[in-house]
């Protein structure tokens, strides 16, 4: 009996009790509490749109070169007997200075010979004039008719006059050659290179050196067709619209020089597809001291240039990375939702985009980096009635949120 109870009845009782317990527990179970899931609005940085009048600044760069550059070439033959002290590379000179002098002995002799030949020709002319007067008196003593030209020695007189003119020309040539033995500076400038030395024999056509003018420096600035559209060229603008500011780092110091746009070369470069404009700087080496505390601008220096262009009205300037493909920008509208605005771009550079139309007065420009933004997404603007830090960097926003969460845990 006991064996039957243990093997049969007891297992059945255990199963029944387990089933009854499970049913009872299932009836006592409370349903899970339902909470409406709410996602917090995205925190973004935004700035109000403020149209303003803008004067475009056009960037370029170029090399400083002299406006005048001359190769000194000998026009006579001879031995160099004198070279000016300032006729060395980098030496400064003024207009009219004698840079090189050639031996003058032979040319002085030529001048004296030409003077003697002229005096002889003049004496022959005077003698021939006297003969003409005698011939006229003799003709009148015999007849009252018109004397023939040959009888009055007119051909001989013309020949004597031609001899005088030829002698005068030879004297002028001799004096000119004598003057050419002194190679003088044609303008104020600086010596770039020298090729003549004392004792050297030079011939007509020999290069004595190279000089450059220091009165005006030129800078050729390449511009694209787009840049030219915002540039008012000389002759069709006011006096301030063509100003140029040159800049360069010299000995670790940033220096600037004022310049003026004077012309365009008018030819589009076939390879680079740019057109060159020319700016000028007066007295780059400050020899005339026209500007106080103005640094020297050396020839050959590479400089950056900022050209003052045309003025545009009611333009919104935004950073270039905020301009999306298709000329769209992401804004926060008056309902604090993200919207894409199709805008009209007046000008775009590597740094900024200048928007002319397409934005609403109530729009705020979204500055934060948002992955996969969707139009109509509700956002929170940092700094608008909240204590969230303003930032244009999504990383900084994430770090601020993490710091706030750690503070809550500590409390």
TrEMBL record:
Keyword Lyase: no
Location of the region described as Disordered in the Swiss-Prot/TrEMBL record: 384-411
Ranges in coiled-coil conformation: 111-184
Keywords: Coiled coil
Recorded family membership: Belongs to the membrane fusion protein (MFP) (TC 8.A.1) family.
NCBIfam families: RND_mfp
Official protein name in the record: Efflux RND transporter periplasmic adaptor subunit
Lineage, uppermost ranks: Bacteria, Pseudomonadati, Pseudomonadota, Gammaproteobacteria, Chromatiales
